[in-house]
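Protocol step 4 of 5: obtain the predicted structure for the target chain.
Materials: sequence only (see below). No template structures provided, no constraints applied. The aim of this step is simply to have a reference model before the mutagenesis design in step 5. Sequence pasted as it appears in the construct record:
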Amino acid sequence: MPGQNTAPPEPPRQRGYLRSAVVALGLGAILFTVGAVGLSPDAPSATGATTPSGASGTVDRTDAVEALRERVRRLPGDAPAWASLGMAYVQRARATADPATYDRAEDALSRSLELQPAGNHQAETAMGALAAARHDFPRALDWAEKATAANPFSASAHGVLADAHTQLGRYDESYRAVQRMVDLRPDSASYARASYTWELRGDRRRARELMSRSLKAAATPTDRSFARTHLALLALESGEHRTALREAGAGLREAPQDSALLEVRARAHTALGHHRQAVSDYTAALAIAPLPHYLLGLGELHQSLRRPEQAEAQYAVLRAQETIREANGGPADVDAILFEADHGDPRKAVTMARTTLAARPFIAVHDAYAWALHRAGRNTEALGQADQALALGTRSALFHYHRGMIHHALRRTAPAQQDLRRALSIDPRFHPLHAPAADSALSRIDDTA
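Step 4 output (structure tokens):
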């Protein structure tokens, strides 16, 4: 197969996975983080029609929730309709970052399970997606296992199972779940997760090929937007900023209010030095969904441009969000940990990361924990976490920058040079603050080596 010798070696138990007739071109498969397409349960739609097997099941009409609410008003004993309503609320909450909508989702799904407590794989799948959206991955895994036991042929259930395994650091299990999803239903959702598995292992070529398949197979505007977003991200994180700009622009022509596309275009503009356009896109994305990584991205862009008041305005909102999270007792996300490490109290960031890692041992959490430990001056411990973050071979400029700075703090000159050069070779403009810091650190190391 072309380019096979460039792929990262797979663990022995992985060999033979992702080789079905559906993926016969050697493109392989992986998985996506929460928010991926295709999490809709295999249930009747708002109109009563069954979701086509090649579609994700995502309803793109703005009145989707209202249509489903009307259906359950007319048919209050329709358990699959309640499951569909619950999933529609999950999808709406992801788009708006409204926690109250998750509560409505849980109410609808609980009603579905009351009506049909046994064999209700639609509601169980949606409950798993809800738990994953709330970053409760052990609970997401429990629900996904129930759903796949109730219906081993549900591709959507295997998608939720794959997402949960990934975030719990069970990568072999996630690859198997994705493969099963591809075998059951080779559509936009399964190809998207397949793309992510190769991205995790550092094979961006295969990841792009599979995400292009996801775009081609997309049956709804939502699925097309998702694929465009991740094609743009794959380009952006490979240093191909103009390609990222084109992909995001193509997506936004169809979905101008998609906050994820606006955010990735803002990052591309930032890398290209189009600061006015970047601020405009970040601001538009935040007006739709005030997500932490949007706030952090805009704040750090302002900071890099020496606009402390504008940066602090974003950071103040982040701190307020963190106060709410702490009050609710939920785990910290990666962005909150990195924000606290760089712009708050690194010792607090260490505590946050340790707690999150216990429930979510994913590579990005290992990286955030490594950086928090470094910022707190605990570099020997930090190095072990940074190594775990890169254990899969993930091609991340930020991860390599973090490990390079840890090596530098430990006076490990050669490894520091290697990681910092690797970060800048992946993308010399990977971050408005950290890329210049990487370049400066590497220059100092080279001068003293």
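Step 4 remarks: Residues 4-238 form a domain with the Serine Threonine Protein Phosphatase 5, Tetratricopeptide repeat fold (CATH 1.25.40.10). The chain has two domains: 4-238, 345-449.
Proceed to step 5.
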